[in-house]
Amino acid sequence: HRRAELAEAIADLNFAVAQDPEFAEAWIYLAAAHSVSPYYVRSLRPIDTNAATRMALEQARRLAPDHPLGLAVEGQMLTESRDLIGAMDRLTRAAELSTLDPTPVMWLGYFQLRSGYIDQAIETLEQAMRMDPLVGINHGQLAVAYLSAGQRARAEAEAALALDRGWAPAQYLVAMDLLGIGERERGIAALVRFLEPRWPAALESEAWAPFKDALDNPERVEAYWQTRPQPYSLEGSIALGRIDLLLEHIDASDHEDLNNQDFWFWLRSAWLPSTKALREDPRFFSAVAELGLVELWEDRGYPNGCEPVDGPEGRHLDCSGFLR
Predict the structure, then answer these.
(1) Strand ranges (DSSP E) for the chain?
(2) Is 317 helix (H, G, I), strand (E, B) or coil?
(3) Which one, out of 89, 255, 258, 259, has a CA that is 20 to 30 A from the CA of 130?
(4) What secondary structure letter does DSSP report for 99?
(5) Could you tell me how far CA 124 lies from the centroid of its own chain?
(6) Are 234 and 243 in contact (CB under 8 A)?
(7) What pLDDT, on the 0 to 100 scale, is given for residue 1?
(8) Rounded Cα distance, 206 and 102, in Å
(9) What is the 8-class DSSP label of residue 102?
């Protein structure tokens, strides 16, 4: 659960399987650690870890084919390979079997959240949080689901708990969304809470002063945007009121390239109150079709309140009934 210590966890698990190649849970947790590493270690890409994940997963399947976390890792890998129907089935089965470890349950909830199934995501993520309320990411993913459902007070409370337990992205998204809907004072305050643990000077720090400058000076946003490392800064476009920049990035990306996993950094925020323009744009629909999401929607149903429509610029979602 301590994502900052993944390198140490991988080293320890490699040592464990070297000592006992029949140690099923060591192989399972080694596969899980490799699979999430690219999303916490910026120098890594999925292509760098997929082989190690698959090798550990093969051993895990041999020793414990129905282990919930092993099934969940399979689901994550199916997501990355764009088989979202298979991913949902595998993650659902993993969550059903998991009675002690909340990770498979949380991963299912996060999958539902990214897919726009917000009501289901809330139910699943509440279950994960109840299973282990001390883990920050369980509160954090639930916060984003609440925010997507328009339950802002509950979202802010869960994001604060997540931040207190060492998982900051939910607090960041709360801030981006507030700024995106024009709640500048509250948005700045939320952003400062996100920044202070790592950057005590907050928006006056060297790292974040350029963002503050772009926020204060809309004419400088495009110059600022060109300097930002992608994909980690994509959601900053929400706060800056420039969803068009995010859409340009999405439109220019090759989503059929399995090493392109940028969607982890924008699909989670596609259902926020501030991002209606994102999810209803034809470029969004085209991108999620390449990611396998439209195939999932056609098979399992579109997000509640959304339906596909054809317009002059192409097929897109009409989510006029989405927000409560």
Answers:
(1) 307-311, 314-318
(2) strand
(3) 89
(4) S
(5) 15
(6) no
(7) 54
(8) 38
(9) S
Residues 6+ apart with CB under 8 A from 135: 1, 102, 165, 167
Assess contact for 12 and 83: CB atoms under 8 A.
no
3-class DSSP assignment, residue 307? strand
Q: What's the CA gap between 322 and 324, in Å, rounded?
A: 7
DSSP 194-231: HHTTT-TTGGGSTTTHHHHHHHH-GGGHHHHHHTS-TT
Q: What is the pLDDT of residue 43?
A: 67
**pLDDT tens sequence across 224-252:** 999 887 677 899 999 999 999 999 999 99
* DSSP code at position 150: T
User: Mean pLDDT per 10-residue run, the chain (324 residues)?
Assistant: 74 94 94 84 71 91 94 92 95 96 96 97 98 96 97 98 95 97 97 95 94 96 87 89 94 84 86 96 96 97 97 95 73
Q: What are phi and psi of 62, to 5 degrees?
A: -60, -40
Please report the DSSP string for 253-306 in residue order: S-TT-TT--GGGGTGGGTTSGGGHHHHTSHHHHHHHHHTTHHHHHHHH-PPTT-
Unique residue bearing structure tokens 């070297």? 18
Question: If phi over 0 gives left and psi between -120 and 50 gives alpha, with beta otherwise, what is residue 308?
Answer: beta
Peptide bond into 308 cis (omega under 30): no
User: Which of 60, 85, 59 minimizes the C-alpha distance to 71?
Assistant: 60
What is the distance of C-alpha 196 from the center of its chain? 22
Cβ proximity of 258 and 81 under 8 Å: yes
